Amino acid sequence: MELLDLPDSLVLEILSYLPIKDLCVLSRTCQRCNKIARDKSLWRDIDITDKRISLKKAWKFYRSRLSDCLQKIRMAGFYTQSGAINQKKPVMSDALLEDIRTNCPNLEDMMLQTFYLSNISSSKLPSSLQYFTVESCQWPMGWLKGSYLPNLKCLQIKSCSRVDDQELKDVVKLTTLKTLHLGNLYRIKNNGVKVITENLTQLEQFELESLNIDDLAVHHICRNMQNLDALLLSKCNITNAAVDNVFVSLPKLKHLDISSNKKLDQQILTMSLKSKSLVTLKFSLDPNTINSDALDKISIQFPRRECLNVYKPEGDVISCGGDTTCIGDAR
Q1: Which residue intervals of the chain are DSSP H helices?
Q2: Quick one: CA torsion of 142, 143, 145, 146, rounded to 10 degrees?
Q3: CA angle at residue 44 from 43 to 48, to 5 degrees?
Q4: What is the pLDDT of residue 121?
């Protein structure tokens, strides 16, 4: 039986599993496929990060395919930090971004990957956004200054050039944020974290990964962010003292990730007994250095607490015994 021998409902179900590129190709084969491929249910979640297109083609694609059904979109540009010849090649313009904002009023989630952000203004971002990710992009000075994102709940900025403490002064104006992830931004230091903690006290999830911060940044978090539900402090320069402060000072914290911090040792397991609310503890310690008594105490006092050890020299799953579980890689 061929595809077109099936009823439209089944063909639509099959097409829902196709990537966007294949869906566009199939829509050009015949009138029936074109009609089914344009069904709005297929265009709620669009990921075109695997195919970079020029601005001219982008105009044609967006105007012919996007509508009020769109809820999530992920796009990629040509920017690379190595300075490739096409890194400034535009795949988006203010006019096109404004067109998306007008014609896609239900767009909630957007990701810009490897974009040369100097080509567009943040003031043209859809005000309907609730989740916004900027990854591996060229970040011009003050890029977020003119943005209007009254519904934004989650902001992720990862591996972008030139994002420093000064840029965070614009981030803190996004007072509706509940989740903030800052990753691989070496220009951000303790003062930047202080600005965040003093202004975004309503954050429920705060993720700091591969930043140039130490125990002082953790001190600011513990002092100002009492409502945190989840905290990630991965690949930073923190010590046992900072982790102990977290356990004592954040009474509502349920999830803590302190993996890939070289200055931490097995004492953090004993320290974790001070936290009554913790549900998940993620760390990375050589299992040969861990005292099993500490894990046993956690298992007895908090039988539902998960202790996830991401230390894996050989990539194998590590078993630590008891009711707690230690997993080689929890990502």
Answers
A1: 8-15, 20-26, 31-37, 55-65, 94-103, 168-171, 190-199, 215-224, 240-249, 267-271, 292-301
A2: 140
A3: 65
A4: 96
DSSP state, 38? T
The residues, ordered by sequence, that sit 6+ positions from 17 with a Cβ below 8 Å of its Cβ are none
Decide: residue 35, CB within 10 A, 0-12 exposed, 13-18 middle, 19+ buried: exposed
The C-alpha atoms of residue 97 and residue 124 are separated, in whole angstroms, by 6
- DSSP assignment of 290-321: --HHHHHHHHHH-TT-EEEE---SSS------
- In this structure, are residues 31 and 8 in contact, taking their beta carbons and an 8 Å threshold? no
Only one residue has tokens 């513990």, namely 222
d(CA 318, CA 154): 33
Joined tokens for residue 164: 């420093």
pLDDT, tens digit, 9 for 90 and up, residues 244-268: 999 999 999 999 999 999 999 999 9
Each residue's pLDDT tens digit, 51-105: 777 888 888 888 777 888 899 999 999 888 766 556 677 888 999 999 999 999 9
pTM (two decimals): 0.87
Q: In whole angstroms, what is the distance from residue 268 CA to residue 240 CA? A: 6
What would the two tokens of residue 114 be?
A: 């490897």
